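Annotated sample (chain length 244).
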Amino acid sequence: MIDFKNVNFSYEKGEPVLKDINFSIEEGESVGLIGCNGAGKSTLMKVLLGLLPHEGEIKVGDLTVSKETLPAVRRKIGFVFQDSDNQMFMPTVYEDMMFGPTNYGHTKEEAAARVDEVLEELNLTYLKNKYNHKISGGEKRMAAIATILTMRPKVILMDEPSIALDPENRRRVINAINKLSTTKLIASHDLDMILDTCSRVILMHDGEIIADGPVEKILTDRELLETNHMELPFKLQGLQIKNN
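Output written by the structure step:
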């Protein structure tokens, strides 16, 4: 579903931010993208969305990402912003969810049916007519995910979906993510959330892929994580202390 081949990107000449990136993600996979600040995670997502130019080849499904294919590529990808306030711009959750499908040419009846279907699937029907400025951060994050799902993307990108959430809303967002069968690429510093939502992890450092493998292998490797300025997920730290 996603394929990067020898992808490079620089904001300034001679200062590469992405360095020879190669990986593939199969349809339906849930992949965590981890790394310390400045590793290149957000830049990689922007390149995938066609917001930044790149060297090398990126494919989404059968489409090669280029200036000519961007409209078709972006119909395949849904992007959940780190700050939901930057994504939810209509007065109510319902109006936000209607905007995408109607903008893509669906009738109001078709769009409304999609809205009801997605809200029911995520157990969020109670949010349908809520005003965006009156719901909690966790509810807004889940509403943002629902908004993307009404457009039925093949791929969902999420940038720090659990940031600034209290424990209850964080758990709600994790449960919502786990209900999605769509291909997911999730960038996050929250390694416990990655452990709970992903089957595979790509670790980046200084614009390069350092490791790529099963979540249980990457996130239990204390030496690998600490070498790249991260720590074991909290729940695994607790297990290690108990076992010792």
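Annotation: Residues 2-215 form a domain with the Rossmann fold fold (CATH 3.40.50.300).
Annotation: The longest helix spans residues 108-121.
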